[in-house]
Write a structure and sequence with these properties.
- The chain has helices at 41-47, 53-87, 94-113, 125-156, 162-176, 180-188, 191-213, 228-237, and strands spanning 2-7, 21-26.
- The protein is mainly α.
- The radius of gyration is 25 Å and the shape is extended.
- It starts with a strand and ends with a helix.
Length: 238
C-alpha cells in the first residue's frame, strides 16, 4: 500500500473538494512483467492480418503506405484551403462563432457522458471559458473553410448524386471502422441526417475537384537545425 497527497485544481467538478489537499491510498494488487511474443508465423496468425510473417509484413506495409498517402492528401487539402482563405478573407459573426464553439463543447461532453448535459454544469465558468478559447481557432477555421467551399460549389454548380453519397459513406466507414452499407442505411433512415451527410459530401467533392485542378509541388522535408549548444560543444571539442 502506497499513500500520497495531491492538491486538486480550483475548477475540480466536485465543488467541496476543489482546491483541497486530498490523500490517496493506492493498493498494489499485482506486479506484472511484459513478455513479448516471438515474431513468427504463429504471431502473424494471432494478429488476424496474415497467416504468415511475410503476409503480416506486407499488410502492415500497405497500411503504413495508405496512412502516409492519406496524411499527405490532408496536408495538401489544408494548404489549399489556407491559400484560398488568404485570397478570400471571411469575417464571421462573433455570436455565431461562440454558438458553434458551445455546440462543439456540448457534443464532447455528451460523448463522454452519454447524456444531455450542459457542460457549464460540469465545469466552472473559468474552465468553460478556457475550453472556448482552446477551441476557437479550430472552429473558426472549420467554419470559414465550409463557407468558402459552399460558395465555390454554388458558383460552379457542383452538386452531389447518389454515387457521391455512396463514395462519401465508404470514405467515412473506413475512418469509423464500420460497414459502409450499414452506415449508409443509418443516414438514409432519417432525412435530417441524410441532408447533413449530403452537405458533408458536397464539401468533400468540391475540395476534391479543387485539389485535382491545383498544381502540387513536392518539397523536401525541412531538416532540423542543429542545437546551438550542441554545435558550440562540438566546436570546442574540435
Amino acid at each position: 500500500t502506497v499513500t500520497t497527497s495531491i492538491q486538486l485544481p480550483e475548477d475540480f467538478p466536485i465543488a467541496e473538494l476543489a482546491d483541497q489537499d486530498v490523500e490517496l491510498e493506492i493498493k498494489i494488487k499485482s506486479v506484472k512483467k511484459r513478455v513479448l511474443p516471438e515474431i513468427d508465423d504463429e504471431f502473424a496468425a494471432d494478429t488476424g492480418k496474415g497467416q504468415t510473417l511475410i503476409e503480416l509484413r506486407a499488410n502492415v506495409r500497405e497500411e503504413i503506405v495508405h496512412g502516409l498517402a492519406h496524411q499527405a492528401q490532408h496536408m495538401a487539402e489544408d494548404s489549399l484551403v489556407e491559400r484560398l482563405l488568404a485570397q478570400n478573407p471571411i469575417e464571421l459573426p462573433p455570436l455565431f462563432v461562440l454558438e458553434q464553439i458551445d455546440n462543439r463543447i456540448s457534443q464532447q461532453f455528451q460523448q463522454m457522458t452519454g447524456q444531455q448535459i450542459d457542460p457549464r454544469m460540469i465545469a466552472g465558468n473559468d474552465s468553460f471559458d478556457g475550453m472556448r478559447e482552446d477551441l476557437r481557432e479550430n472552429v473558426e477555421q472549420q467554419l470559414k473553410s465550409e463557407f468558402l467551399l459552399m460558395a465555390i460549389a454554388e458558383k460552379e454548380g457542383i452538386q452531389v448524386n447518389d454515387a457521391d453519397l455512396t463514395a462519401f459513406f465508404e470514405h467515412q466507414s473506413m475512418h469509423m471502422e464500420v460497414d459502409a452499407k450499414t452506415l449508409e442505411r443509418f443516414y438514409r433512415q432519417d432525412q435530417s441526417r441524410l441532408q447533413q451527410a449530403a452537405g458533408s459530401a458536397l464539401l468533400e467533392k468540391t475540395l476534391g475537384i479543387l485539389l485535382g485542378e491545383a498544381k502540387i509541388v513536392d518539397v523536401d522535408w525541412p531538416e532540423e537545425e542543429e542545437d546551438s549548444e550542441d554545435a558550440a560543444a562540438a566546436g570546442e571539442e574540435e
